[in-house]
Structure formats: structure tokens, C-alpha cells
Amino acid sequence: MEHSYPFTAIVGQEKMKLALMLNLINPALGGVLIRGEKGTAKSTAVRGLTDLMEQVEVVENCPFHCRPGSGTLCAACREKAGVFKTVPYTRRVVELPVSSTEDRVVGSLNMEQAIKKGEKVFEPGLLAQANGNILYVDEINLLDDHIVDVLLDSAAMGVNTVEREGVSYSHPARFVLVGTMNPEEGDLRPQLLDRFGLVVEIRGEQELAKRSELIARRMDYEKDPTAFCRLWEKEQQELRNRVARAQKRLNDVVIPESLYRDAAKIGVTLQVDGHRADITLLKAACTLAAFEGDTEARREHLIQVAPMVLAHRMRRMPFDTTDGLPTDWERVLND
Amino acid sequence: MTDLRYPFAAIVGQEQVKKALLYNLIEPRIGGVLLCGEKGTAKSTIVRGLAALTEQKVVDLPLSITEDMLVGAIDFEKAVKEGVKAFSGGVLERAHENILYVDEVNLLPDGIVSTLICAAASGENLVEREGISFRHDCRFVLVGTMNPEEGKLRPQFLDRFGLYVEVVGEPDLEIRTEIIRRRMDYERKPVAFCEKWQAESLALRKKIQRAKALVEDVVVEEDIRQLAANYARQAGTEGNRCEVVLIRTAAAVAAWNGRDYITAEDLKEAAVYVLPHRQRQEPPPMEEEPPQSPQQEQNTEQDGQEEQKQEQPSQMPEQEPEYEAQDGNDGEEVETPPPETNEGGSSDKEQLVEGENVALLSLIPAIPRDRLLRQGSGRRSKTKSGANKGRYAAFTAHPTPRQHDLALDATLRVAAPYQSQRDHSDCAVALTDADLRFKVREDHVGATIVFAVDASGSMGAQKRMKAAKEAILSMLLDSYQKRDRIGLVAFRKEGAQTLLDITASVDLAQKKLQELPTGGRTPLAAGLYQSWQLLKARRLKDPELLPMLVLVTDGRANRSLWTEDAVADALRAAELIRQDHIHTVVVDTEKEFISLHIARQLADVMDAAYYKVDDLKAEQLQTIVKSRSILAGLDV
After folding, report:
1. Could you tell me the CATH superfamily of domain A29-54+91-202?
2. Which residues, 6 or more positions from B373, have their beta carbon under 8 angstroms from its beta carbon?
3. Chain B within 8 Å of A153 (Cβ-Cβ)?
4. Where are the alpha helices (DSSP H) in B426-549?
5. Which residues neighbour B537 within 8 Å (Cβ) at sequence distance 6 or greater?
């Protein structure tokens, strides 16, 4: 197997790494959009997630790898009514190339079955593969409009409804959407932007020492990927364990009464559209608490995730170059 | 199967959305509801929750739907295996007597929209295609959600939605806190959460059933009919659907409140949902009540309720005779200008409904709409794509070198009727060359707009440049929605400079525009020439592109390009642009008392739309750009 560059070996870019970790722990966070210039390890980081993802039990031979007990099963698995054989499955990163056609994304009519047997059979597409996994779109801002529409549809409901090319089918499609983009190449549609739970803005590392370390590691990796990965395996395993512990703890993280209010307060004060921001704020704060090994979510957690949750949801005034976010969050909350 | 969707009863706030949906469950003939509003306001969650409250199913219409799956088509499985020509129903068949739900309805392709409009209007689905002839009843409650940031809806389609609700986030801190709390509870323990709300859901379900039974018996008195007609006329709605929907909705309101008769209050509540998207004009601003958020709106209504209840009995009988008396002598008397649309001398009629009705109309936020300009969703225009990309919109028997994707579904349907007569040696389906169908793809094409901005010293006078920048900015914001590509050329001092090559990044254009320095002479010809070059180069790469030029200048050309005469040169450059059929808008920033009107001349040469910068408001500018693209014949 080809070794991708280890996640833990990425130099700097802490915000991006944190955002990705939070989504790995809690798939309900709504994904992450990474905005930044070329050559900032965006893709490397996303692809590096594969090696950190946990193994789960899924229904054998199910094209959507349904997980028993997760509440959302495909029609075939529901029919089996709890009597299924499960197999271990490692969650993974499914890539959606910008040139994808609609039929490959949502699925279509199986050509072989149709012609050979005269039967209508659904041929699952990328959204089927993405169920329970991470769906990664590089240069997401260059995606065709009609593909974006399809993504919006499924991302909203966690279900992919197919009514096209002679097939009528619907299957679960719950995925963590991870997108990367270079803002100079064009903007993302507001509706899609809002679907992302978190957004991080990244820049190349400026510090000389870090840059030189970055080059050294990259060269080592390219010389001998296997050896390089072996060198980092200990860190990788530690991170895997940490993620696993956080996942276990997540649902038991205590949310103090005041924190609900804090989240609402931020939403009201900053006048963000709708309620998705408030809810994501709290979810992200809980996930961060779990990641840091805390049993209770606190205001510090909330404040730490706030910029990632809110930056893309602020109403920006024309010619406004700032991100519009407050610098003193404590003051916002105490006012 | 246990239903683990977020329970309808557990939704906090959004009373108007909930009511509008409930009324549709009670009286399906209302015709559905359009939920229009900002992101993340639980629009979809509420609709999904409906399924648990009624026998009706929520049938999804995904945006990626193809025509055959919407209306139904030949069942090729049956044709191949049994040699029978049978019809296989589509989404419309399943939607019959159910709820048809379209998320992001404004993004639906035009062809699908037209089919939907037809079906909704006639109450039946007629299929005549691929050797199949079939019809079935098709009456459904159409529920759509949309975020207006992504584009508008066609007026004909808008009118098909019985009710309209503008959805906004709850502004109140307490309510917001409760929303977050419930959502977290639900996500952490969905089963327990749904169980906790089961009793309330059941109670709600029963109440709906009772209301459903009652609505059949609701009597509509003559005075109510007249009041409904009055509302509709005041709002200046087209046709008479509005009155009918008003009364049906009012009947649902009455039944919901356990009554078998309609009060004026019911009708008033109904109007809040029925009129906004049908109003022809925005009512003039009333002093007391500007349009508000639905929450506040309801409160105000409730506040006024007692007072109005007392008025009601005395007011209603009075109205009738007056109404009839005036029918005969339209337009003879009373010059008082009516608050709403004044059509054909009906001004006197408005008088009798003074007070109450007028105040009501001003409470309903009239949504801006444009009857002249039809506008597709999202991007500015849609064209049949020449390449193998875009949305699969139709099929053809004649592939082109650039479009040759096999449309398997269409091919099979075409071949299906002949299967029993053909030789099947190795496949179940025998295809011949004549059966083959190929995909015709449809792609959105945004306009490619180059802004040529005069940055000379004469523009430098602070205010003028500011006005120009504002004008450009408002067009940029529109471009953002329409997915246009934009370029920026500035001309000052010795020549023109391309500040921004054609890009889809409005952000970048904004940045460049902000930094734009001013000063020096006005090389107008050079600016025009360079913009022309930029557009021409683009068109070579992409022949399907829709080029536009927006020239912002005071016209005071004083630096020549080819000859000695700066103005003549500019006019010559303009001529080149016209010959190339590039659609142009000229925004004149000249303010001096002694005007030279050069920008005007340029506009004439280029056959451009001409505007004075001072006359322009943001919306107007957007309309200009839009109507220009319609002139170009590229808007669908």
C-alpha cells in the first residue's frame, strides 16, 4: 500500500489540523472548508486523515456500509431487521474530483444488468461510497453548479434521493464534507458555504525555522516513504488513541447551563443568519473538550472554536476586508 | 420502523412556518407553501417532521431529477421480460394526494419547473412520450424551500404556491438558547427525545384530524367572500386564484380553531400567508408599521385583536351596500389616492376598506418581484452545452462530435417496445443503431463582464469616484449570485491597465477596486480598446461566453490613442466594440454644469444602455445588467 504523508508529521498549520481532528471525532459537526493559498499542505492533511480513521463494524456486502445501531440504514439492511453479519471496515477519505459527472456522483442505472438481463438495477455512485466516510473535494469552488446542488441536497438530509435515468432510489449518505479552495479562484456559493460546520483560513508558514524543518521532513519522506512513516508511527498511534478516547467521551461531556446561553448570545450579538452557527458552536466546544480530555465543556472551549464556526457566517459589509469577528470574546459574552 | 426524525412538536418558534404547513394538511387544496429565508432556520427539519402528523407522505423531488422520472415513462423491464408495453409512474404519480417537497426549489432546472407548473395547474399528469400515452390524477401539496441569495423564482411558479412565509432566525436570546438545548438533546439521545415528545405529537395529530373533518363543513358567507375579493384587489393580484386561496386558507384557520364559520380575523390571518408573493407592488410605507419579522407581526396582530373583534360585526354589514353602490359609478368621485395599486379608476373602492385592511397590507412584507424580467436560478443564463459537461437535460438521436455520451435510459426506453420481435442471442435487450440516444447536456453560462473604470484626475474628485465605486460594487454583488466572471480595467495617466484579469472571484475584484488609485489624464480610447481586447481574448477561448462591458466614466477624454483627437479616438474604439456585438452599459459620472455629453455620445455609438450615476440605485443597476443580458437573447 502506498504510504501517504503522516498527519502528525505536518509542520505547523495547527488550526487546520484541529478542525480536521474535531470532525474526525464528531462527524455531526458538518465538515470543514480549508481556504488558503497553494502549497500549504491542505490536501496532504486531508489525505493524511485516512491513516487515522477508526475501524467500525458494518453490514457485510452493503454498498453503503451501513453501521448497525447507527439509526440510519439503507432499505436492504432495514429489511434484514437486525439479522445481519457484520465485517470490520476502516472509514476512509472518498475523493470527489472536480470533473465528476452527476451520474457518477449520485449513482445511475447499471448498464450491464440493464442490457444483459433487462433489469433496472441501481449502480451506486460516489455519495454511496461516502456514506459514513469523509467526502473530500479539492478546489471545491470550481465544482459545477449542478454538482454543488446535488451535494447540498444530500448534505442537508443525510440521504441521497435519486430520480434519474430510469432509476428511483434512495439511500443514506451521511458524510463529513471536507473541501479545500484557493479563494483567488472564485467564491463558494453562500448556501454551500453555510453547510460547512467549520472554516479555517490558512497561510504558508512564515517562520524560517519551521520552513526549513518542513523541507527536511518532506525530503525525508520522498526519499523513503515507508521508513518515514515507520518513524512517525508512534505519534500516529498516539493520535489515533486520543481520537478514540475522545469519541468515547463525547456524548458524556457535560454542558453547563450557562454554555447554552453563551452560544445563543454570540449568535444574537453577531447577528449571524439562522441557528446553525449557535448549534455548531456548542457541538464544536463539546468536541474540543472531549479531545482535550475534559469532562465538561467550558467557555474557553467555546471561545477557541468560535472563529472557525463564525468566520464564514458573518454578514460582511462591502469593502470590508476584516473578518468582522470580535477580538475580545469574553466581553461579548459578559455584556 | 421507529421514526427518529426531529419531532414537529419540538420545534421552537417559527410559528408562521408551522401554521402555514398545518393549514395545508387541513385543506390540501390551498396548494402548498413556499418557505423563503435565510440559511439554517430549520426549514427542512420542519417539513420532514410533517410526515409523522398525517397519513400523507412527504415525497422528495431531488434537484438532480430527470424529466422521465418526474412524469413517468415506459417500463422497460416489463417490456423486455414480458413483452408488455406498460407505464412506470414517476414522482408525480407518487405525489398524488401527498406532499411534494422540493428543497432549494429555486435551483430546479427550467424544464422540470415547467412540467411541475403544468401538473399543478391541471391536477393531472399527461404523458405522451416514447410510445407511451398515459394520464393520471395528480393533486399534491407543493412545499418548497429556498434561500433568495441563490436566485429567484419564476412568477408563474411563485403563484403556484398557495402560501408564502418568510423565514428568519429567532432573534430572542431565550428562544435561541432553547433551540440549541433541544437540538443538542435530540442529537445526543434521539430515541429518548422522540419518546419524550410522543404525547404532544399525538395530540397535534388528533387536532389536525379533527380540523380536517371540520373544514369540509365550514360555511363561507357572502360578506367573507367580498372581504376576500377586496383584499385581493387591494394587493393588485393577477387573476382570481388569490381570492380562492384566501378563502380556503381562512377555512383551514377556522377549522384549526374549532369553528365551522370564517371570521374576518381568520381571513386576515390567511392574508398574511396568501398575499405577500402575489402583491403586484410594494405598498407605500405606512407610518405605524414597517414590515417586521413574523414573530413580531403576530404579536402586533394579537394586540389589536380585541379592538377589531368589537368593530367587526358593525363593520361588515356596512360594507356590502357601499360596495354595490359604488360598483356603478367607478372613478367618478373622491380623489384620495389609494394606498395600493390603483387600477382602472377603482380608487373610490379603496375607501370603503380604509383603516383595517390597509394597515394589514402594510404588515405583509411584499417581496420584490419583477414581472417583466424572467430570470432563471443561480446563473445568468443557461445554454445547451457543446461539450460533454453540464446537467443531463434531454437526449437526442443525433450525437455531435463533442456530445456523444450514451443516454442508456433513453436508449432502453426507445428499444423497449420492439424487444419481443427482435433476436436475442446473448443479451436480454437487443439494441440496434437506430435505438441509440445520446445525452444533451445543459450548462449554465454566467456573463463575462469587464468593468472599464475611469480613474483619471477628473474622477478623483472624492465624491465622484465614490459614487462610481458604489455603482460597480452593487453590480459585483449581483455577479456574485449569478456566478458571472468579471474583469477590471482602469484607465488613467498614460494608458489603460488591466487590474484584474477575468476571474470568478468577486472578492478579488472588490479588493482591486478599493485600492484603485486616481489621478492624471483620461485615456478613454485606451481604456475601451483594452477592455475590448480582454473580452475578445476570452471569447476565443470560450465561444459560448456572453460578453458585456460596463463603462464608468465622466467622458472627459483628453489623451488620444491613435490620432490627435482624444474624443474621436474614443468614439472609434466604441465603434469597434459595437461591431463585435458586445453588450454595453455606460454609467456617466459627469457632474459639471457645462456638460460635454461625451459619455452619452459613446453610449449612442455602442448602442449601450446609458445611465447617470446619480440616478442609479443598487437594485436598478442590477436590473440594468439583467435586462441587457435578456437583450442579448441569452436569458431563458
Report:
1. P-loop containing nucleotide triphosphate hydrolases (3.40.50.300)
2. B623, B626, B627, B630, B635
3. yes
4. 457-460, 462-482, 506-515, 524-541
5. none
Task: Report d(CA A210, CA A216) in Å as an integer.
Answer: 10
Tell me if domain B8-192 and domain B217-282+317-323+343-368 are identical in fold.
no
CB atoms B505 and A277 under 8 Å: no
- Percentages helix, strand, coil for chain B (3-state, rounded to 5) are 50, 15, 35
Domain-wise residue ranges, chain B: 8-192, 217-282+317-323+343-368, 389-444, 446-631
**Minimum-distance CB partner of B505 among A145, A184, A267:** A184
B629 close to B546: Cβ distance less than 8 angstroms: yes
Residues from chain A that touch B91, judged by Cβ atoms under 8 A, are 163, 168
Q: What is the pLDDT of residues A19-76, one digit of tens each?
A: 999 999 998 898 999 998 888 888 899 999 999 998 888 888 888 988 887 767 888 8
CATH topology (fold) of B8-192: Rossmann fold (3.40.50)
Residue B390 contacts A where some CB pair is shorter than 8 Å: yes
Q: Searching chain A, which residue's CA lies closest to the CA of residue B485?
A: A186
**Residue B40 contacts A where some CB pair is shorter than 8 Å:** yes
Q: SS3 for A109?
A: strand
This prediction has a pTM of 0.76
- The CATH code that applies to domain B446-631 is 3.40.50.410
The pLDDT tens digits for B264-291 are 899 999 999 998 888 765 443 333 333 3
Q: Which CATH number fits domain A257-334: 3.40.50.170, 1.10.8.80, 1.10.12.10, 3.40.50.10300?
A: 1.10.8.80
Find the closest chain B residue to A194 by CA distance: B39
Using a CB-CB cut-off of 8 Å, the residues of chain B touching A277 are 40
Summarize pLDDT for A71-128 with one digit per residue, the tens.
678 888 888 776 788 899 999 999 999 888 888 899 988 888 887 777 888 889 999 9
